[in-house]
Amino acid sequence: MLSSEKCAGTGLDKIQVCVIGGGRWGENHIKTLSGLGNLAGVVESNQERLKELEDKYFVQGYPTIDKALKVGFDGYTVATPAPTHYEIGKRLLELGQNVLIEKPLTLSSEQAKDLVEIANTTKSKLMVGHLLLFHPAIRKVKELLDEDKIGKIHYIYSTRLNFGTLRTAESVFWSFAPHDVSVLNFLVGNPPIKIEAKGSKYLQEDVFDVTMAQFTYPDNVKGHIFVSWLHPFKEQRLVVIGSKGMLSYEDTVGEKEIKYYEKHFEIAGQQVLKHENPTEVVPYEEAPPLSEEMKYFIECIGTDANIETADGNSGYQVVKVLEEVDKILWNSEI
Question: Whole domain around residue 264: which residue ranges?
């Protein structure tokens, strides 16, 4: 469905993937790969948890990465806490392994860049778990933009608002916004060239609870990301404004529809002409994003093609934005 034709291969059911990390999100990897028929191993240091996963998914478990490496797998997914991503990713990539690392790729752009360079040197395939890049609705929006459905992109905004989950070791931007940054970069086709940001701390002295980041992309495309865990209701909304029309997608409503608004202004001399036609619901084929992400990783492992969607460089660009916003926030509070 969403997988790249360049990555299509044969014998994909024989690709063996080992999941490193058996926590909540790690189990999502395990469950998805098991359903696809590609789960071959799990690494988890907690012996009780490892036994539970072995019994539940009928998979061979390993208490250390060393033991898994001795067996050898076609690829590894890393679903451990973010502070461990660099160390684990570096080790695997230096050994020439194919790796999918959950977002964020690392906690610094310097480390992220290092992983990308190592992957290039060892010819390993490095992918980052930017899940929304495999969401069928986001893929459909990208397709519509590429087809010039709304003309030139003027402006994109994304909101991710909720009451919780409150973090004590990272700001709301690091916690909520990596998905949104990856989506904006994906839709525009480039990382931002200018960033502005403001934020507020209400509950803790050193953690931002609300942030608004504004971006300028090449060709004067603008965008903003508004995130907060101090919001009375949940909202995840994406809106794209173009020269010929507009698109919206909201992930928190029951219908989860992509809407196309044939609305735009035309200036003719001293006249401003307003064009407005009925809103159109754009159909798309629904599928679990994590399943699509794993399929893509598996298919790319099985071919000589490079990973294009959510590759290491895109992960590096996201970390650069997170880092830059963090720096700006500490110099500007609303």
Answer: 133-288+319-329
Q: Is residue 112 domain-shared with residue 205, that is, in the same domain?
A: no
Is 334 domain-assigned?
no
Contacts of 180 (CB under 8 A, 6+ apart): 158, 160, 225, 227
pLDDT, tens digit, 9 for 90 and up, residues 122-133 = 999 999 999 999
105 plus 189 within the same structural domain? no
Separation of alpha carbons 76 and 92, rounded Å: 8
Total domain count, the chain: 2
Q: In this structure, are 20 and 119 located in the same domain? A: yes
Return the beta strands (E) in the chain as ranges.
17-20, 39-43, 61-62, 75-78, 99-102, 126-129, 153-163, 194-200, 210-217, 221-228, 230-242, 246-250, 258-261, 263-268, 271-276, 280-282
Indicate the Cα dihedral angle 100, 102, 108, 113, nearest 10°: 20
Distance CA 159, CA 72 (A): 42
Burial class (CB in 10 A: 0-12, 13-18, 19+), 332: exposed
Give the distance, in angstroms, between the CA of residue 251 and the centroid of all CA atoms in the same chain: 15
Query: Is 283 domain-assigned?
Result: yes
Instruction: Tell me the per-residue pLDDT of 104-124, one tens digit each, with 9 for 90 and over.
Output: 999 999 999 999 999 999 999
Residue 254, CA distances (Å) to 160, 180, 232, 238, 249 in order: 17, 21, 18, 15, 12
Q: pLDDT tens for residues 35-83?
A: 999 999 999 999 999 999 999 999 999 999 999 999 999 999 999 999 9
Query: Phi-psi region for residue 21, left (φ > 0), alpha (ψ -120 to 50) or beta?
Result: left
> Measured at the alpha carbon of residue 18, what is the angle toward residues 130 and 322, in degrees to the nearest 5?
25
pLDDT at residue number 164: 80
Q: Is 314 a member of any domain?
A: no
86 neighbors 115 (Cβ within 8 angstroms)? yes
What is the percent of the chain with per-residue pLDDT over 90, rounded to a whole number? 85
Average pLDDT over residues 6-29: 82
pTM (two decimals) = 0.93
Summarize pLDDT for 164-200 with one digit per residue, the tens. Answer: 888 888 899 999 999 999 999 999 999 999 999 999 9
